[in-house]
Design brief:
The chain has 255 residues and is an alpha/beta fold. It is built from 7 helices and 7 strands; from the N terminus they run βαβαβαβαβαβααβ. The protein binds NADPH dihydro-nicotinamide-adenine-dinucleotide phosphate. The site of NADPH dihydro-nicotinamide-adenine-dinucleotide phosphate has 29 residues, from α1 and α4.
Length: 255
């Protein structure tokens, strides 16, 4: 098998939460480009359908949109069941759905803190739990959490206690799930992006100058720059990689 062949996902099925826009869309399209059937899972059904249609058109891959809130276990179970019914199983799960919250910790409502952890951490756990059950029945699989460089540092100058906590928790969860599920052939890894141009960020004129100034490459990332790493972690190209986190931050953490 050639090196490039190791990146192919022909006949495999990938579920991408939050695959309708931003980083999730770029990852979903990237996985489809290398041959995977792709399931887009997010809350807004219309946006999910539109993304699935666009990806099918741009790549020729089979796609499906399944509306699901990742914090709702019944919806997550149904997402996995619908994916398996349509494509015969789940080989790749990308836990990308996420939310952020900003505000001084001493004033942050506990509901806000909990909401952020609920989506970013509990949501990833629920999707992993149900996808892993399906992967166990098949030939194993690859689970990828879109964590953040925020898992390893304090965000500055913005205050984001809930977001940092939710992403740091994904690091511990990655170790544990990689350990528990290695015997089933399931690999679990994290992608840790720096600042990426998506709707999650405020408009350019409202961004703190430090975001760019502290990044060695002197710019934010495009979502398409995150997708190749997801293809690597999803495919045979990374067959000996599990329980790790890969920073993709333009050198932000270097200084
Ligand atoms: P966006 O805000 O563009 O996308 C967030 C996605 O998550 C949307 O597709 C949204 O769809 C989905 N989503 C949110 N809540 C839920 C939910 N409860 N259930 C299902 N889907 C949900 O952000 P990004 O593309 O920037 O973020 C993607 C991931 O990347 C996040 O985990 C984020 O933390 C992480 N990240 C982003 C960085 C950045 O600078 N942009 C940096 C580092 C990490 P819908 O609303 O329809 O449900």
């Amino acid at each position: 098998m050639s090196v490039l062949d190791r990146f192919r996902l022909d006949g495999e099925t990938a579920v991408v939460t939050g695959g309708n826009r931003g980083i999730g869309y770029a990852i979903a399209e990237g996985l489809a480009e290398v041959g995977a059937n792709v399931v887009v899972a997010n809350r807004d059904a219309e946006a999910g359908r539109a993304a699935a249609t666009d990806i099918a058109e741009s790549t020729g891959a089979e796609t499906l949109a399944v509306p699901a809130d990742v914090t709702d276990e019944a919806a997550v179970e149904a997402l996995v069941a619908e994916t398996a019914a349509e494509f015969g199983g789940v080989d790749v799960l990308v836990n990308n759905a996420g939310t952020s919250s900003t505000g001084p910790a001493e004033e942050m409502a506990v509901e806000e803190f909990r909401r952020t952890l609920e989506v970013n951490t509990t949501g990833a756990f629920l999707c992993s739990k149900h996808a892993a059950r399906e992967m166990k029945e098949g030939d194993g699989g690859s689970i990828i959490n879109v964590s953040s460089m925020s898992a390893f540092m304090a965000n500055y100058p913005q205050h984001q206690a809930g977001y940092q906590s939710s992403k740091a928790a994904l690091e511990g969860m990655k170790y544990q799930l990689a350990s528990e599920w290695a015997e089933y052939g399931i690999r679990v890894n994290n992608i840790n992006p720096g600042y990426v141009e998506t709707e999650m960020l405020p408009p350019e004129e409202m961004r703190p100058p430090q975001w760019r100034e502290e990044t060695l490459l002197d710019r934010l990332a495009d979502p398409e720059e995150i997708a190749p790493l997801a293809v690597y972690l999803a495919s045979e190209a990374s067959s000996y990689v599990t329980g790790t986190s890969v920073l993709i931050d333009g050198g932000y953490l270097v200084r």
